[in-house]
Amino acid sequence: MDQGGSPRISGLEELIKAAKSAGQAPVERWSPPYFGDIGLSIGRDGRWFYQGSAIGRMALVKLFARVLWRDEDGRHFLVTPAEKVDVTVEDAPFLAVEMEVRGHGEGQQLIFRTNVDDVVACGRDARLRFEMETGGGVKPYVAVRGRLEALVVRSTTYDLLQLAVEYEDRAGIWSGGEFFAIA
Length: 183
Prior knowledge:
The chain is an alpha+beta fold. The protein has helices at residues 12-22, 58-66, 154-161; strands at 34-42, 48-50, 53-54, 68-70, 76-79, 84-89, 94-102, 109-114, 119-121, 128-132, 138-145, 148-152, 165-167, 170-175, 178-181. A six-stranded mixed beta sheet has the order 3-2-1-6-5-4. The chain is elongated. The two termini are 29 Å apart. The mean pLDDT is 88.
């Protein structure tokens, strides 16, 4: 537990070091030929599929996740220096499965771990946004990289919403010196 009483992400420091050393693929600089739809998809639950069959090897999913790209129109692609293929995404390509809270109030920092072990420190460069569901629920998303987002899983959403405060007549959450209003 950290000083705020929230659980700590297991192995967080090691994950941060590994992410820094691995780096991200420079997909935004690649301009390969488009090869169309080969049957890749990501389900609402974060599972990856190839032609309807679940991809069970996490190492392969993580490799694909490193070269995933979302264009300005909202379409998702796997991009390599040699080819670009469609990926159908039901909701968000990633899930934020764990959250650690460091500090409190306006100085608080939220750190998320995704289902593919990306580590995201929420703030100016990794925005948090909320969508309202029909029926009154809320779905929070955190920016991972580029235009890619992670949907915060329900159990972590409950922990996240516990951190909501009022600021300038709006409910929201502080992280990394930024206030993220709940819609």
